[in-house]
Amino acid sequence: MPPLILGLPRNRYFCIPFNETSGNVTWPEPFAVDNNSTDVDLTSNFQPGDVLPVGDHEIVYTAVDDARNVANASFIISVRPQRKSEVFYL
Questions:
Q1: Which CATH architecture has domain 4-82?
Q2: Could you state, in order of their start, the residue ranges of all structural domains in the chain?
Q3: What mean pLDDT do residues 57-70 have?
């Protein structure tokens, strides 16, 4: 039986300053549990705190237990620039 990935965030939206092309994004990291193994390897293609360019990015987590059972889970991070009309000066 494959491990379970728990605590996966929902899709997220990050707004960055209108003159930027990328942004530092964060999210709560999920964790993995298994019914037969205490050692579950959880990896991801991106890490919280990574700088991502404007666009949509699929964040994929993969959990592998000692028996080499594999589980995958993912969510989308959308990085968008703030529209210039939304910038306020005080």
A1: Sandwich (2.60)
A2: 4-82
A3: 96
